[in-house]
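Help needed: design a sequence for this.
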């Protein structure tokens, strides 16, 4: 059995619940690879081979060793779970979308860890917010985008079915980290000559809710415009 583990919901982020509610130590019990963000929506987290990094709002990469640091939202899995080898002779977001349709995975949760040399990589990172927190959609207006050519690195990302939109961002949610640990973030687009790595098809989706977090318990989900808000916040799948 392969399990993808998610802490909290994207709808909570949209509802201004941005305070950290799980520690990295807790998160790492459920995976050694993954994506997320930190307290106050502070940057973009990338977990690779059990090590945690994040790109801050200024585009700087940090190696995180404090396992008491908290996250409001994250998705992780164990790379030791059953997986399939995959490769692309050319890679971009459209190819990753095709990967799902070609393998009839639209109704499943899937994850990838892909490595390669990228001709171009475009990412973004959100600046840390302070209380009273803005919504995720408001933060997208202040986030910065960064681009880099000719960079080697790893993509870690998750595909979620349309059925779960709001709990997750339906479609792909992908982060990048360069091999030299100087560049990364939430992926908006990329171009690569070749990508190779692992595809994990999850038969178990484990959602952990921060029931002891007062802000999470009290927030209300505004269903009107949720899909459009999530799409705007998460970026293009092209």
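Sure. Designed sequence:
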């Amino acid at each position: 059995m392969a399990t993808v583990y998610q802490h909290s919901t994207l709808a909570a982020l949209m509802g201004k619940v941005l305070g950290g509610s799980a520690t990295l130590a807790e998160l790492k019990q459920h995976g050694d690879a993954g994506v997320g963000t930190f307290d106050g929506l502070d940057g973009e987290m990338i977990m690779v081979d059990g090590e945690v990094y994040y790109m801050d709002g200024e585009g700087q990469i940090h190696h995180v060793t404090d396992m008491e640091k908290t996250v409001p939202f994250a998705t992780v899995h164990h790379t030791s779970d059953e997986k399939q080898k995959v490769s692309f002779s050319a890679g971009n977001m459209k190819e990753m979308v095709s990967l799902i349709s070609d393998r009839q995975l639209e109704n499943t949760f899937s994850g990838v860890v892909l490595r390669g040399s990228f001709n171009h990589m475009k990412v973004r990172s959100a600046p840390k917010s302070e209380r009273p927190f803005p919504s995720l959609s408001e933060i997208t207006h202040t986030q910065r985008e960064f681009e880099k050519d000719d960079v080697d690195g790893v993509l870690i990302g998750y595909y979620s079915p349309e059925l779960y939109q709001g709990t997750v961002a339906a479609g792909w949610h992908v982060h990048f980290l360069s091999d030299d640990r100087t560049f990364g973030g939430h992926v908006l687009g990329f171009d690569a000559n070749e990508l190779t790595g692992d595809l994990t098809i999850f038969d178990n989706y484990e959602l952990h809710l921060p029931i002891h977090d007062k802000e999470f318990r009290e927030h209300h989900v505004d269903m009107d415009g949720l899909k459009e808000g999530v799409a705007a916040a998460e970026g293009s799948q092209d």
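The mean pLDDT is 92.
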